[in-house]
Amino acid sequence: MKHARATDLMTENRRQWHRLFGIGLTDLFADSGWRVELEKELALTSQLLDVVIIERQQTAIPTRSIQLPDGLQGLRAHNLLTYKSRHEALDAWALDELIGHYVNYRKLNATPAVATEGDAADASGSRLPPETDFQLYAVATRHPKGLCRRADCRPTGLDGVFDLRWGLHDIRLIVLGNIAKHRRNAPWELFSADIERVRHGARHYQGYRPEAERLLYELYLRYKLEIPDMPYTMADFMRESLEHIMDDMTDDQRQAFLERMSPEERLRGLPPEERLRGLPPEERLRGLPPEERLRGLPPEERLRGLLPEERLRGLSAEELRRLKDLLRQQEG
Fold first, then answer.
1. Are 5 and 12 in contact (CB under 8 A)?
2. Which pLDDT tens digit goes with each residue over 134-150?
3. CB 216 within 8 Å of CB 209
4. SS in 3 state form for 242-258?
5. What is the Cα–Cα distance from 153 to 99, expressed in whole angstroms?
6. CB-based contact 186:192 (threshold 8 Å)
7. Is the overall model pTM greater than 0.85, yes or no?
8. Cross-strand bridge partners of residue 163
9. Bridge pairing between strands 169-175 and 134-140
10. From CA 315, how far away is CA 103, in angstroms rounded?
11. CA distance linking residue 86 with residue 140, whole number of Å
């Protein structure tokens, strides 16, 4: 029973890594010429493809261009990705599964029209999209040394990017742990097993939607859960990444982002002088009881600017008598 529960927890942990990876790519391609689908269902029984990057129809006008991370250049109409986190090895079975997903996905996109001579067709005779519309990707956190010894794994000239021949298919292999340390590769570095690379990625990650902040938050929690003594605080992680996210937001996006945060979250990490900057004195003191307003001030500061009668106001007759006696002693 305990073994089954541990297995379930491990499976769920891996699934969470895959979902976060897909969310990162969703943000990267926001408002671009491609859309991203996660955990694409490919069969009546659950067979989920990690990520699909699909070229948008020409009727959807992209609102921005993208500086793609290494390995994603040359995207096609349909780009199928399998992803292996730091807990998983990219092996032969993973590539076999990717090919199977490709076959099923291509069938799902067949058109009802009857295939003519020269067209690829499925068993029912429906026309399949051309093979040139598809690109397969294997994204692995760790370098699959065993797999590359068995397969034709050719360097592309980009660090961590290879072209891998598997059967009759070419697969683009992207090894996140070996990718070039560059700001364009920040979306990849966030999923590296090297905490310094993660830190570099967080420092240069440029989110395109307010939801990107949530992705970074979830990633930090997952790293902290798995690496409890990680020498990198939440404040470091969020500060370095959010600086770039906020810089790239429009005024409306920035305002919407701030409105979703509680007052405590907006002020978290700011020193007292930063929290009070810009507030007039009466606003700073509003709501404080008199004893809190005066706390820390020496007697002469508390009385400065008051007229003599205001200084004496509230004293009892006995206190006034003792004050007069004190003054006589000082004069004598």
1. no
2. 999 999 999 999 999 98
3. no
4. HHHHHHHCCHHHHHHHH
5. 17
6. no
7. no
8. 154, 172
9. parallel
10. 92
11. 8
